[in-house]
Amino acid sequence: MRPYHILSLGGYIVEWDFPYRNLIIVNKISEPIKIEIPVFHEEWIEEHRDLGLDVIPVKKDDNYLSMWKKAHAELDKIRPKNERL
């Protein structure tokens, strides 16, 4: 995952009984981080948090768009100007 980048893994969750409908992943550091997809188990969340990623689980009743915009705004505050989209 590129430095200072955000993405959504909703289409990469393959476990039928996974407790979240989507995961928002944020890399807030200046180094790329390799992530494993698809997502097969809930332990994936902690494993990738341990790598330095922000992993934001989206539950069935959560407002995905609101959560995405909040995470994106937080990322924009720390993203260097030369890294902006």
TrEMBL record:
Pfam families to which the protein is assigned, alphabetical: Ehbp
InterPro entries per the UniProt record, alphabetical: Energy-convert_hydgase-B_suP
This protein's name: Energy-converting hydrogenase B subunit P EhbP
Species this chain originates from: Methanobrevibacter oralis
